Automatic annotation (TrEMBL):
This is RING-type domain-containing protein. GO terms for cellular component: nucleus. Residues 23-65 form the RING-type domain. Transmembrane segments: none annotated. The keyword Ribonucleoprotein does not apply.
Length: 68
């Protein structure tokens, strides 16, 4: 959990300004004002989604499988 807390976070901006993607964990678009986490591999996810993924599913990125 300490390792997760050290990952960089940011507040998402309106679509098109930064990450116009969808969170591949929950399949929802990034909406303005939501907290996002960037993994060391540079993939970005909703904070709550990636926290659950890393603590309950796997300690790897859901996209590229790089160890976190």
């Amino acid at each position: 959990d300490e390792q997760f807390e050290s990952l960089p976070t940011e507040v998402s901006k309106p679509k098109g300004e930064q990450h116009p993607e969808t969170c591949v964990i929950c399949l929802s678009d990034f909406k303005a004002g939501k907290i996002l986490v960037t993994l060391p591999c540079s993939h970005v996810f909703h904070k709550d989604c990636v926290r659950t993924w890393l603590t309950k599913k796997s300690e790897t990125c859901p996209l590229c499988k790089e160890s976190v």
